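Let's sit down with a protein and look at its sequence and fold side by side. Which protein we use is up to you, so please pick one and set it down. Label the sequence line and the structure token line clearly, so we can match residues to local backbone shapes. Go ahead whenever you are ready, and we will take it from there:

***
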Amino acid sequence: MSSLTLRPTITPGAQRELKNHVTFSQSVSNALSMAGRGLIKVRRTPEQLFDVTLQPIIFTVMFTYIFGGAISGSVQNYLPLIIPGILVQTVITTSVVTGVQLREDMDKGVFDRFKSLPIARIAPLAGALLADTLRYAIATTITFITGFIMGYRPAGGIWGVLGAALLVIACSWAISWIWAFFGMIGRSASSVQGISMMILFPLTFLSNAFVPANTMPSWLEWFVNINPVSYLVTAVRDLTNNGAIGYDALWALVGAIAVVVVFAPLTVRAYMRKA
């Protein structure tokens, strides 16, 4: 008499759930691995760093020598005003790359291949956001080095500079969640970049990053004073030039937290639908 071996039947949905059931520590490890993948991509295609290496130098030199004499009387007097502004403008603009690269990976089917791996489903997204913090750190470092070569000496000292750098990186990482969301819902990488720049350019240039707000028309000064970018620029100036932490830094951090609270769930939800 032959015996029959009964095996439990697992539906595809249950099998997918079992495969993706990982612990928190495994999720962190997977995210770090995905971040490492992003760094490897940068090493193999170093032209991806052109925006964070050349843009700070070009913008700093160009704006300083064009506007320095007209706005502050001399280049040296303009440096304490322009270096924090260039820093914020450059690093925030760099955060757009997060959404663009996510959209490119999805269009190329990279995320489809990740589905077959026994990793946390959120790891590719978390890894991409984590890897891009290196880009922000590079842009920040080069901006300060360029300013130092041109004669900028931050009166806030090393701790003021470090505090300003961490503040800019943290706020830019928070803003990258917005572009990551656009990367999830956008139809193409070019559309994601176009929409992001259309939003960022008015915010960065219609701020106090390059000229004092009180030199503008009253209606424009009103917008500049409520522009979130202006709060961040003022906070960075206070830290680098005075070594002080004021209300502007607090509002910048509150704004960054608010962005993450709103856009992180939206991005994760949109990502999970596709992953």
